[in-house]
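okkk here we go again. third time trying to get the fe (ii) ion bound version out, last two times i messed up the smiles copy paste (missing a bracket lol). double checked this time i swear
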Amino acid sequence: MRRRELISKRITGYVNWKRNRMRSHQPEILAKLVDHLATTPHDHLAVTGDLINLGLESEVENARTWLSSLGPPEDVTLTCGNHDSYVPGILSRAFAIWAPWLTDDSGKTATRSRDFPFVRRRSGVSIIVCNSARASMPFMATGYFRSNQAKALRAILKEEGAAGNCRVILIHHPPSSKATAWHKRLVGALLFRRVIAAEGAELILHGHTHLASITAIPGKTLAVPVIGVPSAAQAPGGKRPAARYNLFSIVRQQEKWEITMDEYGYGQSSAEVEHLARHRLA
Ligand SMILES: [Fe+2]
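finally!!
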């Protein structure tokens, strides 16, 4: 991407932010949601990306402070989004500054796209972090999943599955077919789905759409739930669902994993965070 395009992307992003996000995404909404989350017992937190907006270094630093507020980095796992790679160069800065949340159990940090996926294992759950973030042209919000990640993901799923672990994949862009507009799609989604069909997984979590969605894609034996969540800062009353987080209960029952999801967030006109719904996923 040339410098002119880079500047042009920041300008279009700034206009978009002034028109839409600045009004609909509010820090106090996010703060109240995180306060509620802190009072809800949980073992681990998965953050599915787009922590920043325009790809400014100051935003990356602020996001680091926010990540630190969520709990010890070993209890918080991150995957990055298209806004975290808004212009060339910023993603590698983000990887460096957000390193504690991008480090596997052996202490190895994902500092480049080729370091993904990485795995964190917690009490029989394998959290597998893919990366779809890569700088794109102005007006585009695409994500990318290429053959190198596919090959590595396949090997990880095979190994973690053989160990009997519950395989939870994080990826910012939704891998389901037609989940977004064309300019926001995951390039390589078909490849991703082929890997899941070949090796299976127990749960896939994504961001990007700002919608509360429960879909599924074919796995090796069973369908794999694919979960999207609204933005954590979305104010009630907007076009998109208000801020929400999902709490997953993952329990081993004999030969299978039982997964339940509780949705917590603001109702469309509510000023308070409340329990919204419960879903049995598996
Ligand atoms: Fe996104």
